[in-house]
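This part of the workshop introduces the protein records we will be handling. A record pairs a protein's sequence with a compact description of its fold. As an example, a complete record with its sequence and its structure tokens follows.

_____
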Amino acid sequence: RETGALAAGRAAVVAHHLQAATARAAAVAGSAAPMPTDERASLTRADHPELYRSTTHGIVDYSEDVGSKDLVSATKEGYDSVELLKRYTTATMGPAQGKLETVNTVAILAEARGETIAEVGTTVWRPPYAPPTLGALAGRIFEPERVSSIHPWHVANNATPILAGAWIRPEHYGDPAAEVTNVRENVGIIDVTPLGKLDLQGTDVPKLLNLLYTNKWSKLPIGGVRYGMMCAEDGVVMDDGVTARLGEEHYLMTTTSSGAARVWEWVENWLQTEHPDWQVHCTPVTTAYTSINVAGPKSRELVGRVCTDVDLNPEAFTYMQVRRGTVAGVENCIMWRIG
């Protein structure tokens, strides 16, 4: 318990310093506490029970099931060095790591060689010399947190945060029922920046999409959007999302928030190991785009107030299409009509 408290206290101090020094991290509360000192009582060291062996042979290492007869036989075969004997018989190499059986192993070897324990010597000890806690092996808890460029606005408007993969995003702003009703009857917006995004360029992108998704992509027109589902090699669903064709050889793929890194690795695995000849360049751009979803019966009216260079008429901007335009003064925004 004392060891755990000491480790937790030191971890808290380190976490405070790291958070204070990390850009875009949440502000720290107060100053850091001093590093806790180790005031634990030293471990007692009791004399090792030198049992050696009786007049008959018996087990020396219960972990590895090695007996004194095995050690004597190994010595006669030429494994008469304590290090060679250890590796040949695996004595002292079990879970106890020699804590219980080293002295007896060396004693049997000394008897077989006609020497003393001091003359034979012990095996080379390696750390840890004392059993460490699992918490010490695991280290401090550190989960990186990612936020969108408009996260300060969410905080200022009392958003209740949720975790989506490594991203912190708003769940609601105080009255979820009223917010849902407003979206149904009027219009609402949501920060969907955490959705994964991969920029795909090259002449062979359609081949890649046909390989990754379960549906066909060869005839997707420029300005078109299509939904796709990915399956792993075992046929189990791996991820899903929509992909848009922005130009002749330019596509933008979206993934789930938690699956962005996994899908990127999946894409690169196919391109680098199975089809290195394909002309495809894949760039992760999840953090490059701040993404806002606009939904509700008055969504077209709202978008029309901030975007004037894209025809939002339903006949001109049809379902499952993509356009580029200026939104709220920001040029070259990518606008999707999906849902």
In short: The two ends are 53 Å apart (CA to CA). The longest helix spans residues 2-21. The mean pLDDT is 91.
